[in-house]
Sequence to fold (811 residues):
Amino acid sequence: MTAQLVASTLRVSTPLIFAALGGMFCERSGVINIALEGMMLMGAFGAAVGTLVSHSPWLGSVCGMGAGVALAAIYGLFVIRLRANQIVAGMAINMLAMGLTPFICKILYDVTGSTPSIPIAERFQSAPLYLSWGLVVICFLWMRYTPTGLWVSFAGEHPEALAAAGIRVNRVRWVAVLVSGALAGMGGASLSIFLSSSFSRDMTAGRGFMALAALIFGKWKPLPTALACLLFGFADAVQIRLQGVALWGDQPIPVQFIQILPYLVTILVLAGFVGRSRAPKALGTAFQEG
Amino acid sequence: MDSNSDTAAVMATSTTAAVELRGLTKHFGSVQANAGVNLRVEPGTIHGVIGENGAGKSTAMKMLYGIFPPDAGEILVNGKPCAWNSPADAIAAGIGMVHQHFMLAGPYSALDNILLGAEPLRWGMIVDRKKARAELQALASRYGLAVNWDEPIETLPVGVQQRIEILKLLYRDAQILILDEPTAVLTPQETNDLFRNLKKLRDEGKTILLITHKLREVMSFTDRVTVFRAGKVTGEVPTAQTNPQELANLMVGRKVVLNIDVPPARLREEQAIEVTDLCLAGTVAGSRHKLTEISFSVKRGEIVGIAGVEGNGQTELLQAILHPRDPRCRTSGTVKFLGEDVTSYETLRIRDLGVAVIPEDRQQEGLLLERPVSENFLLGLQRSPAFSHAGFLNSTNLQKAAAQAVEEYDVRPRDLTLPAGKLSGGNQQKLIVAREFQRKPRVLIAAQPTRGVDVGAIEFIHNRIVRARDEGAGVLLVSFELDDILTLSDRVLVMYEGRIVAEFSRSEVSERELGLKMAGS
Fold:
């Protein structure tokens, strides 16, 4: 039972970890990424379609990442190039993804609810899980030991200093936003072709926002962020196990109440810790070169 | 002037200039920031660049550093024409710049801040911090610029932060150093250290461009001076052949009185401000409280200056005096204005006693930048019977009074409908002074009255403050500019880490002593 719960926690944390790491690059570079949710959703859809077409989860996840990057490119165009408000543009991206996925699904498969089911042999068994933790380590080393990691940090903390050192801030931010689209797309892919067997409408169900909460709780650092994802994943795993279990008498707790659990944990964590963690100073402010 | 430009011409033919700007022109929208700037800097010299705010000196320097390209004109470095695309090109050509606002990110280490953008690499991709540290250690000991490399920037004092900025340039092996208002945040001692280092660098053959508005620094530390006014160069002279008065006149374009004559104060018996044991919990710099047991008084007819380096509790003190009710501003102690205990008063009631305030941050607290001049003139006076009747504004009276004040206080342009944000810094400040003096103040609290204000306006504001004193106002002057303090104050208090650490009367104050106290010794 415990081993099952641990395994389940690790599995359901995987999409969160990908998305949160993507969010980390974006936000450390100074761009708020409330659009993670939409990028995940788009990634989940792209991955499902890609897998159905190619019969390979690897090619499918590349499609998912591509879909995330495409959405991130639209986002970047608005917030970096045109300096739009990042919250508003992010919300718009989310709505775009919510509308676009069933729309394309209808065109391709003549249903809006979900894509056809993907056979188990063509889905991931455990690769994304290992991949996500490998990525946590890589991101940690990347941010700390490479010049580009340093640039991303400065782009979010003091962009003028980066510009004065002769580096183009918006170029750094563009790369960070696109990388975040790819990773959020991979997070979505691990939802649709790893944890479940198809894409279904609005299947991210707020996981993008949960990843964002984990990022804030983890102080925008890779390792603590991944641990925060585990916490949310644990709440989710517990929730799944509690469904249909009778705690008092013989009536099970209504499933709607149980499903609240991960969201409740998110709210408690954000309410209790957000004030204490310090965001990159230039987060949310557009940079005008020259 | 003619003989000076002749010497310049002779020098021009004899050596290759380290930097030469020819006919540099730059527009921002409809504003002409530079209109044909010509500037020539000899190698191995300290060259002062002075001018009022908005005279275009920073714009010219930013073009030299590649932050934006000129609309027209040429930049030559060591005789070679340059067309920069970004600061990276300028850095590669050996130009470095210390910006007025330090380009340092608080949470990151001194080391990372220095090597940003010039990272030495190991295996082609990893930042080689060990190598950088060794190189920097060598540089630091050569120039006596000790720095703790691993401390986050935000925990270091500003003097050290500036050292880090200079090390940044040396690390990149810059031969031409541009320093933009480098002494604005330094104590006099730190300023002296800075200039000692700059002289050492010059003697090693580096070329230094010093942008400043402090005539004293120009006179003591530069070899030549270029004066900017209204986007043009109005003069270039060897420092040895000029004097502060001539430079000030060149900057302003008319004759300026640099040190106004302040007659001795005629104190009245009444106390204007009495502050007793004022405390505010929380920490500032190294001390336990933001404000610790501050007690002082100001009589009517007297100017008391509070000197200190920025960030030693001056802002907190002003907030505590003006908002004593607010527990975020004051945790204990009493404040009296004109003998009346105002500790429980709301701000409006305090102001109605005859308290005028020139706020520290005029754009945040002093003006509504989007609103026209006339409405800004009304701020805080909206309930006075002169301008309102039965809850309605009397706009005829307002227009008349505002027009008169704008005339009297020389706010330019004389356009009451212009949004206040469109005025220059000096004129914004004059507008605030006009409004506050409308109250016929019995208490005047003037915070940073000359911050970002040009020489001509400084003279005007100084004169007005002295006049207010002579008409019977008790004046509390808080300024980071020693010139303000030394010119105006009848008594000087020194603030350090949230305490008053020293008091001098006008006759006994010396700049050296003041500097030592400001640095906490």
About this structure: Residues 156 and 282 of chain A are 5 Å apart (CA to CA). The domain at 2-276 of chain A is CATH 1.10.3470 (ABC transporter involved in vitamin B12 uptake, BtuC). Chain A has twelve helices and no strands.
